[in-house]
């Protein structure tokens, strides 16, 4: 099968200031807050971004588009992101770069074991870290020419995106008797709270995670998280 990309000659050349120019990054991430950070990082790096929030949506997208870079959250609402990474690694038209991402550092081994080129631990807000995580794995012909100073600074996602994530968690918690739902809340909120530096919510999530790991009942911990989520939804955010 001919895997030559017919559009490759039309890619704009990357520059030292915009080293990801010409790349399309597909971010498969269910957190609006984390995805907003990725959008800002791509914008400042010169890359185009597309987003999918489930494995199902990602697979539909990949039937139509051919992204240069795919960043896969390891914990998605409809499955394990590692399974999708495994599919991408074995695809006939493999993306140039496949990265795993998670708020759980222990997930790095899982991503690399199924063939990911690299791993990023949330929060990912550093422009230098983001660019290097991709450039390290790109072929030579997609690298910017000339010397390139590492960019300084971090992006600050819109707090409205964080509120969107709280709305999502509130919806999931309506079915708190479902143990799978609780496990998803632990995974999702852990990454979101860490990204937003919400230490109070992160502590509550860690407490729920500990109870779930021991197989203990966690009604009180779930109630605490539900209350904290409602508090954040009640806060007025200036637009």
UniProtKB/TrEMBL annotation:
Protein origin, superkingdom: Bacteria
Keywords: Phosphoprotein
UniProt keyword Nucleotide-binding, yes or no: no
Record-linked PROSITE patterns: RESPONSE_REGULATORY
One Gene Ontology term from the biological process aspect of the record: phosphorelay signal transduction system
Record keyword Phosphoprotein present: yes
Domain Response regulatory: 24-137
Residues where 4-aspartylphosphate is found: 73
InterPro entries named among the record's database cross-references: Bact_response_regulator, CheY-like_superfamily, Sig_transdc_resp-reg_receiver
Protein name per Swiss-Prot or TrEMBL: Response regulator
Organism whose genome encodes this protein: Tateyamaria omphalii
């Amino acid at each position: 099968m001919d895997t030559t990309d017919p559009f490759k000659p039309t890619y704009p050349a990357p520059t030292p200031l915009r080293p990801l120019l010409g790349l399309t990054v597909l971010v498969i991430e269910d957190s609006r807050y984390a995805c907003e950070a990725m959008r800002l990082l791509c914008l400042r790096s010169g890359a185009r971004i597309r987003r999918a929030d489930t494995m199902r949506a990602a697979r539909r997208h990949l039937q139509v588009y051919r992204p240069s870079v795919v960043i896969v959250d390891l914990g998605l609402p409809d499955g394990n992101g590692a399974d999708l990474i495994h599919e991408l690694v074995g695809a006939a038209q493999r993306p140039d770069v496949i990265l795993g991402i998670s708020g759980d550092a222990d997930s790095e081994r899982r991503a690399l074991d199924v063939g990911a080129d690299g791993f990023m631990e949330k929060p990912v807000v550093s422009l230098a870290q983001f660019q290097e995580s991709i450039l390290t794995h790109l072929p030579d012909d997609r690298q910017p020419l000339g010397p390139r100073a590492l960019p300084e600074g971090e992006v600050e996602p819109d707090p409205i995106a964080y509120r969107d994530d709280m709305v999502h968690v509130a919806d999931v918690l309506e079915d708190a008797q479902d143990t799978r739902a609780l496990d998803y809340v632990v995974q999702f909120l852990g990454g979101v709270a860490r990204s937003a530096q919400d230490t109070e919510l992160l502590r509550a999530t860690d407490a729920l995670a500990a109870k779930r790991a021991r197989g203990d009942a966690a009604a009180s911990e779930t109630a605490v998280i539900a209350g904290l989520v409602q508090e954040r939804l009640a806060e007025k955010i200036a637009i």
